[in-house]
Amino acid sequence: MMIKKCTIFAFLLLLISFSFAQLGEKKNAFTHADTLRGSLNENRDWWDVLRYDITVKPDFNAKTIEGKVVVSFKEIKSGHSKIQIDLQKPLIIDSITVEIFNFKGELGIIPVKQVSVPFSQDTSLNVAYFNFPKLKNKLASFIVYYHGKPREAKFPPWDGGWIWKKDKNGNPWMSVACQGLGASAWYPCKDHQSDEPDNGASLSILVPDSLVAVANGRLEATNKENGWATYKWVVKNPINNYLIIPTIGKYVNFTDTMMGEKGQLDESFWVLDYNLDKAKEQFKQAKLMLRAFEYWFGPYPFYEDSYKLVESPHLGMEHQSATAYGNQFKNGYLGRDLSGTGWGLKWDYIIVHESGHEWFANNITSKDIADMWVHEGITDYSETLFTEYYYGKEAGNDYNYGQRRGIRNDETIIGKYGVNKEGSGDMYAKGANMMHTIRHSIHNDSLFREILRGLGKTFYHQTVTTGQIESFISEHAGFNYGKVFDQYLRDIRIPVLELRIDSVQHSITYKWSNCVDGFNLPLRMDKNNQSLTLFPETKEKTTVLTPDQMQLVDLKLIDRLYYIKIKQQ
Q1: What are the tens digits of pLDDT across the range 90-141?
Q2: HEC profile for 457-473?
């Protein structure tokens, strides 16, 4: 009913604002299951995942799956044995087998014991528990065998789960979307963003041999027999649980290469057979995106695993080294410009935005989903940077300014910690405007670019907190932006610049209001090769200027470059 009452554009903004959250979630109505999922309790914090090796066999007609997961790990805190495994109802664990490893001379690490262990599964809490035998040399693994009918996505990617769909020719088309919902919606794992498998992962997918299965990383092996095909994909780099995704359909493939900052980068594109010609044209933008983002953010973070676009049965998602693409081979967001400026129709939103996540979300991942602005805010700002790279700085300013119409200021951008809850969908457009505001406050584009590239280098393949990102930006900018981050990430008010200009006395009286205590955003303005910096505080102050400096006080320019409101007396 609501959709029918909205304009199409308003509906698109609504989709963005959901920020991949589960639909119908009650605000702040957290359960014990939320705490078990969102926190590192005593059954999770003593062991560190080293690798996932996943095997899955979907049944399209029955909408069921069966599989196994080998979880390799190391002990990081002694004195514990109980392990919490996450698996969401109605999936059922059949058995758990533990493998204990030891060092054996030149043979390296080998299994020395395999034991089937008892376990308890609480489907109401989406968890299972078992006790691991005493470890030797801190290294071990366990295998979880499971089956069932996984949650079906009703409105992917925002309402996640397994996707059972048919292409226009009636062929099966399957995948998963699980950001926010969690990877435990389809395979057993330690479902917390802070623990990525340090040594990567593999995903083996069994499908009828008339179909092709695509996943993250590189295709290591294909085996066909008795009407079935097994495709094994291997990821060498650390990868977050929710990014490991199978996509299955009547796919064809074409490839390209690019000489990037770390050498040759392999590009691979997987699309439904009848979309090959459209894809070959539209996906030329992938190389444009890669060049722009390597300039701004540094080398693509996953050369070893290649870069891929995979046509998906939903709009799109940042699946590491296998970006899901469902934008109908159109520029904009399903053919529309979310900024309303026209610049967003110059490029394909899903190729740019979802691939931008390779740097922020996949390379740098927030430990807690409450800090998801690190993913979405900076990646949303990548759209501005892409626009600027190809169409000029003013075009980028236009695009960023246009994004403001999607900001609601209804909730804080940072969510509640420890319960698997992200903050407001404002993390997208408001996060992008915060980054643009800080950039112009720094007033040194070369330095700002160094900061962006420095983030990628310093936190390469790491999980982080908001505090780490804030501190890095402030330290390298040479100014403490702590109160600025507080204002935009932890408050819903738009700061107001109150000012009074006295053209006779050549003075300006100004202060910040409607803001957090101590808000101190510097405002820098340029015109005719001259610059002026104002340092407003929450206490009113007056600055006497020269006649030339008075000409630099441009309120329209301030409004355009900084996400604030202006109240002139």
Answers
A1: 999 999 999 876 555 444 555 556 889 999 999 999 999 999 988 877 889 9
A2: HHCCCEEECHHHHHHHH
Q: What is the pLDDT of residues 502-550, one digit of tens each?
A: 999 999 999 999 999 999 999 998 888 889 999 999 999 999 999 989 9
pLDDT in tens, 187-204: 999 999 999 999 999 999
* Interval 344-360: pLDDT, tens: 999 999 999 999 999 99
CA torsion sign, 290 to 294 to 300 to 306?
A: positive
Question: If we measure between CA atoms, which residue out of 232, 293, 299, 290 comes closest to residue 256?
Answer: 290
Domain boundaries, the chain: 42-249, 496-568
Give the pairing type, strands 251-260 and 263-272. antiparallel
Gap between the Cα atoms of 407 and 427, Å rounded: 9
Q: Are 516 and 487 within 8 A, CB to CB? A: yes
Mean local confidence (pLDDT), 50-69:
98
Q: Is the pLDDT of residue 73 over 50?
A: yes
Closest residue by Cα to residue 31 from 162, 119, 151, 126: 126
Q: Where are the beta strands (DSSP E) in 209-311?
A: 212-214, 218-225, 228-235, 247-249, 251-260, 263-272, 307-311
Average pLDDT over the chain reads 93
Structural element, H or E, at residue 431? helix 429-442
Q: What is the DSSP string of 339-389?
A: TSSSGGGSSBHHHHHHHHTTTBTTTEEESSGGGTHHHHHHHHHHHHHHHHH
Residue type, 215: A
Question: According to CATH, what is the number of the domain 42-249?
Answer: 2.60.40.1730
CA angle in degrees (0–180, nearest 5) for 141-144-145: 145
The pLDDT of residue 6: 35
Q: How many CB atoms lie within 10 A of CB 489?
A: 21
CA atoms within 13 A on the CB side of 482: 7
Both tokens of residue 203?
């995903």
Closest Cα to residue 217, out of 355, 359, 322, 354? 322
